[in-house]
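Protocol step 4 of 6: structure prediction from sequence.
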Amino acid sequence: MAEHAGQVSFPGGRCQAGESHEQAACREYTEELGCPNEHIELIGSLPAMYVYASGHQVVPLLGLGGDLPAMCPNPDEVSEVLFLPLEHLLGLRPLVRKIQRGAMLIETPGFWLEGHWVWGATAMMLEDLKIRLMRIARAWGSWEE
């Protein structure tokens, strides 16, 4: 999407006519990363969020897929695939950086991953996931900050 060119993001896009959010997420995963989606088990979602830059409501879905499949990213949509191990996610502490967006200078939280600044909706989704995973782990008594 032109509004997000050059930004780190998850696979995603708009639902097609008659398509559920879950179907769209699986289709976009396959279209963007070249991976089969028949072994993905959708396990839930994070709260929907409105992304001002694109004017879209985003529904982040979570899925499990077993072993990491071979990827063949679509070069028209993906310039690089980044990996964020769960241990790294759980240890992240957001930083604040100034970003120039047109005539606006924005202070935004985010973090560095493999030399890329992850910020905006992607960083917010990952922070929300981290918080939820830490709550679960603390409830089970297996994580202490």
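Step 5 (inspection) to follow. The two ends are 37 Å apart (CA to CA).
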